[in-house]
Amino acid sequence: MPELPLTPAVQHWIYVVLIWVGFGALAGLLATVLFPFRRPAGPFWAVVLGISGSAVGLCVLSWLFPGRVANPISPLGFLAATVGSLALLALYRLGEALFAKRGDAEADEP
């Protein structure tokens, strides 16, 4: 099988994306274990939640500590990613509760 001629810059970005996906998946799975979905959502949504939570948590971490590089590999970065995933999951549950009640009230009216 022929290999693709990848430049070092492309190889670096592929490595970075794989790190974010891997640690985001771990953070999302940990967040769903600590604070699970009400209905089964499947592992795909746990991974999406984790990657999104990693981005949110590490952005907040870099905002709080402007001189530090936010990296999901470090223990502090993994903690920030997990807390970001938990925050997104809590917002999802809050939105689900608010909109489910509003939708149920409309369905009950004749």
List the helices and strands and how they pair.
Blueprint (H helix, E strand, L loop, with lengths): L7 H27 L8 H22 L10 H34 L2
Distance between the termini: 65 Å
| Integer average pLDDT | 77
Secondary-structure content class? mainly alpha
User: Low-confidence spans: pLDDT under 50, at least 5 residues?
Assistant: none
Globally, the shape reads globular
Percentage of β-strand residues:
under 5%
What is Rg?
A: 18 Å
Helical amount among residues, as a percent range? over 70%
Largest sheet: none
Give an account of the 3D structure.
It contains 3 helices and no strands. The protein has 110 residues and is an all-alpha fold. It has a domain at 26-32 and 42-102. Helix 1 (8-34) packs across helix 2, helix 1 packs across helix 3 (75-108) and helix 2 crosses helix 3 (75-108). The N and C termini lie far apart (65 Å).
Question: Key terms for this structure?
Answer:
75% helix; 3 helices; 110 residues
